[in-house]
Amino acid sequence: MLCEHCKKKIITERHLWTLFKQETHSICDSCYQRYPLFPQKITIPIEKGIAYVHVMISHGPKIEPQCYQSFLKIYYLDYLRHYSKTTFIYEDYLEDDGWQILESLEFGDLYVVTLYENTHEKGE
Question: End-to-end distance of the chain based on CA atoms, in angstroms?
Answer without folding.
Answer: 36
